[in-house]
Amino acid sequence: MNKNNKKFYIATAIAYSSKQPHIGNDYDLVYADAIARFKRMSGCDVFFSTGTDEHGQKVEGNAREANITPKEYVDKITGMICDTYRRLNISFDKFIRTTDGYHEEAIKKIFTKLYENGDIYKSYYEGLYCVPCESFFTPTQVKDAGGVCPDCGGKLREEKEEAYFLKLSKYQEKLEQHIENNPDFLVPVQRKREIMNNFIKPGLQDLCVSRSTVKWGVQVEFDPGHVVYVWIDALSNYITTLGYNPENKEQPELFNKYWPCDLHVIGKDIMRFHSIYWPVILMGLGLEQPKQILGHPWLLFGDEKMSKSKGNVVYSDELIEKFGADAVRYYLLGEMPFDRDTSFTYVNFIRKYNADLVNTLSNLVNRTVVMTEKYFDGIIPQSNLEEDLDRDLKEVVISKVGEYAVLMNEYKISEAIETINAILYRTNKYIDETEPWVLAKDETKKDRLGTVLYNLLESIRIAGILLSPIIPETSAKIFAQINTDITDYETVFEFGGLKPGIKLNKAEPIFMRLDEKKIMAEIEKE
Description:
The chain is α/β, with parallel strands linked by helices. It is about 50% helix and about 15% strand.
């Protein structure tokens, strides 16, 4: 495969190690993984980073309740998170923990540099604080939210403490100009409108960036009574994961190669932190801005945002146990539009599984391989006799490949999956149109039958390549059944990559139909 060697650095928000993330949190990883896999497949030099945010008051409190140290607590939670990511086949290149020694050292230096540059000053904070969100809120924000936390709806408490502040106000004009001059900086477009209209244009308030009442965190180098607050500690992971440290005269090769980040993948609820606080930190450090910040929609449970504090959550591990990793990946990526929230229900999950993975994909692969076994002893036949039906099939497949490429490069993955399904629907229709079982009864139609089966197998091969960033285990099973190593992305743009004369492997259904009533009864019982 020809490598274009264009670098592509993608980073997700790092998971908070207070409790195991739910499926809505894991969407970040699955979505970013599909993009990373597609970019690698396209020939890019990809660096994919994720990790865990392990400091703060909530962790400190949870560890105290569990009667263990905060480090023991986060080791346990991070272990669970890593196991879930492994089961979801997340292909990250680096996993950073904010308790990693190199990160903590860099955070001390970053804080000190911002202080010495005049971007951080000492004062005191008095206001309303939400422990679960680890956030302070202004009276206006609280009033607009009806007296509760604007983010989680939880109870707020009065806090007053000495603290260091980041001068967001100093960079207001520069930040506003950057967002206006770079229309693709914040996507989808409604995220830009929300940030500009709700937060930046009303005027930025300086941000509290240290805590003196919390001990579990990175100590401020020149004032050990304070620990660095989450915004600088967690957000800076995107540069410390590449080895950045402001004290270095020369930054490491990894940083020089991959920064600036090409794409931050985050939930829309933390867009404010990434599109205001993070750019200001980078401005203070004199570093380039990331190229794009994507705030994806929420996966709801019914009509509500999933929340561990509300208990209305579904965990990826439970779904993987019941349905397999690729089914979970497919549902998340296929159901979530680029710019709108979507709702998770078990019924919808099961129906999508049966409709798309069983009826459309698995049945197509199985029928085609079985017919090749039956009529050609499992040998991929030659394609000799082309008719209008064949040309129409090929035109649909290649045109959908082109649409897929555009949509994947725009990160519109659910729409890209629709183009793959359009290939599969057309290929299934082609079976009904050509009726291979009828052709097989006439020995004079042997060449025509061979052409039909070749076209089916080639359409399946192309679909398998397009599916590989979405459901990688399934793609591998498809390639194994049709016994091909012609799986490079560049081969999908022309019909005819499959080599005749190769013997297929045994037909086995990739997905088996789910019994909706039975499974729903089991879930209700649980």
